[in-house]
Amino acid sequence: MFKILTLNNISVKGLERLPREKYEIASEISHPDAVLVRSAKMHDMEIPATVKAIGRAGAGVNNIPVAKMTERGVPVFNAPGANANAVKELVLAGMLIAARNIAQAWAFARGLSGTDEHIHKAVESGKKNFVGFELPGRTMGVIGLGAIGVKVANAARALGMKAVGHDPTITVQRAWQLASDVEQALSVDDLLSRSDFVSFHVPLTDETRHMINEQRVRLLKKDAVLLNFSRDGIIDDRAVVAALDAGQIYAYVCDFPSNLLKDHPRCITLPHLGASTREAEENCAVMVADQVREWLENGNVANAVNFPEIYLPRNGGHRVAVVNSNVPNMVGQISTDLGAAGININDMLNRSRGDIAVTLLDLDKTPPKDVVAQLSSIAGVLSVRCLGCVGGH
């Protein structure tokens, strides 16, 4: 029986992927095998030594001590792309709200008073203050062409806009999904100078922090609109507000309210709604539950931010999963110890990523406890698990 600790409300559809005959799930549970989390902060949490996996029901993992978990040989799973449609739709909504001055017009309408006749007259005289512009022929710039960025670029094309993207690390999979007429920007600066709208879909790192700063704001078109539904900190808010006050850019739409932004007449701030749809929450929970289950039961890895992708089909035998430092001769030492114990390897797969490697072995017999202990004692081995073996999981 695997024990799963939930730190937030995880969609029932996700939890249903973990069969009750194999999994005990609770918000308070001792010695958990895995943790499922959404937004709870785990950096100051005492994470039990029994934890073999952490699953984040979302894309970002800033709330999880990933480096610490890597040192312990614990994969951290996320759900990239599961909330992509939800974020794409909010980007489109933000673009339309900014272009048509919807937020300002709504505030004006809500502030009207008097008789209906007075209101009608005020509407006719006041609507000229909220004249907007249409989207066809304008250019959407997308920085970051992952699951969300590709959808945003393609949606812009469907609205009759031009689209230009920048992502030096775009994957082959995402490139195939991108509309063929989305243009490539040679750099962030190149993209900014060509775009009427700029949407950001990158993680917050040392390289992306304040990607839009005082210098880059000057590259934007006078009527440019910035859309940040990615991460707080990617844009230097003070630089953007200064540009708005000076009339250098048109509007700023983001998911991260602050005292500086929330009352500014040319800022539209939303309370972090990017992935806040029932469908996105369900998709994220299902994806991450499947991934955690696959790791716990079979040792296979998909969408871990700190582990290599690895998949070895079950062909019978007794499976052992070894997590170790990515250093020479680890597979050789593992094989030698198994051979010395008279255990044959029926199938094996080794994959590495950075400092971490995972080796999956299907053996002709269950390794005794002393052999497991021997494997665990190899310098650099972080964990050894018998999956489905008698006497352990």
Keywords, please?
393 residues; elongated; alpha/beta; Rossmann fold
Describe the protein in words.
The chain folds into three domains: 1-81 and 278-306, Rossmann fold (3-Layer(aba) Sandwich); 84-269, NAD(P)-binding Rossmann-like Domain (Rossmann fold), CATH 3.40.50; 308-393, Alpha-Beta Plaits. It is built from 13 helices and 16 strands. The protein has helices at residues 12-15, 66-72, 84-99, 102-110, 116-126, 147-158, 172-177, 188-194, 214-217, 237-245, 278-298, 330-340, 369-376; strands spanning 2-6, 23-26, 34-37, 53-56, 76-77, 139-143, 162-166, 183-184, 197-200, 225-228, 251-254, 267-269, 318-325, 345-353, 356-363, 381-387. It has a seven-stranded parallel β-sheet with strand order 8-7-6-9-10-11-12, sandwiched between helices. A five-stranded parallel β-sheet has the order 2-1-3-4-5. It is elongated.
Number of domains: 3
Q: Rg from C-alpha positions?
A: 26 Å
**CATH class term of the largest domain:** Alpha Beta
Could you tell me how far the N terminus lies from the C terminus, measured between alpha carbons in angstroms? 9 Å
Low-confidence segments: none
Secondary-structure element string: EHEEEHEHHHEHEHEHEHEHEEHEHEEHE
Oligomer: single chain
What does the average pLDDT come to? 95
CATH domain topology of the largest domain? Rossmann fold
Largest sheet: 7 strands, parallel
Name of the CATH homologous superfamily of the largest domain: NAD(P)-binding Rossmann-like Domain
Strand order of the largest sheet: 8-7-6-9-10-11-12
What coarse outline follows from CA principal-axis ratios?
A: elongated
